[in-house]
Amino acid sequence: EVQLLESGGGLVQPGGSLRLSCAASGFTFSRYAMSWVRQAPGEGLEWVSTITDSGGTTYNADSVKGRFTISRDNSKNALYLQMNSLRAEDTAVYYCAKPVVGILRGNFDYWGRGTLVTVSS
Amino acid sequence: QSALTQPASVSGSPGQSITISCTGTSSDVGGYNYVSWFQQHPGKAPQLMVYEVSNRPSGVSNRFSGSKSDNTASLTISGLQAEDEADYYCSSFTSSTTLVFGTGTKVSVL
Beta strands of chain B (E only): which ranges? Predict the structure, then answer.
C-alpha cells in the first residue's frame, strides 16, 4: 500500500526557516518524480515544487523561487522541502504527492495527509 | 502564472448530470493534454478523478468523465449522488514548465 507521511510543520516567525519531510513507502520511490502542493486555510490548491526521480532537476513556483528548495534521498525514500525567508502568505497545509507517471503532468494519484505550516509572530 | 478559471459553485439534484469547466489559455489547457481533475472533501487530501484530460484511475466511478475543447477542459459528473458533494480542482501543465491549478468549484447536491 502506497503511503506518504509528511512531518516537520509547525509555527514559525516571519523570516524564519522550516524543513518539511515526506516519508514514502509501498512503491519504488526512486522511479517517480515527486511534488509538494500547498493549500492555504480556506483557499485552493497551489503547486509549490517538483523534483525529478533522480533528484537532478527541480522546478519551483514563482511564489517560492529563491526561498524554497526541494530535495530527496532515494536511499531513505524521503522527500524534503527546505523553506527559508518564510512569509505570512506561506501559511498552508503542505502535501507531498506522487504522480501516476511522468513529471509536471499534475496526475497525482497519492497524497499524504499534509502538514500545517503557520507563519506568524 | 494565473490560476485556471473555474465556476465558484455548481449544483444539481440527485441523479442529474453536472459539468464543471476549467478555462485556461493556449499556454496551458489548450496546448497540452495534461489536464487533471481532483475531488476534495472537507479536511481531506485531494483525490485524483481524471488525468490526461479523460483517463480515469482505477477505482474511480465511470460517472466521472473528462473532456477538452480548445482552452477549456470539463469534468462531467453523471447520476449525481450525495457523496459527490465536495470541492473540485483542475490542473494543467504549462509552457513555462510549471503546474497550475484551477480556482476550485464547490459542488452541491440539492
Answer: 9-12, 18-23, 35-40, 47-50, 64-69, 72-77, 86-93, 99-101, 105-109
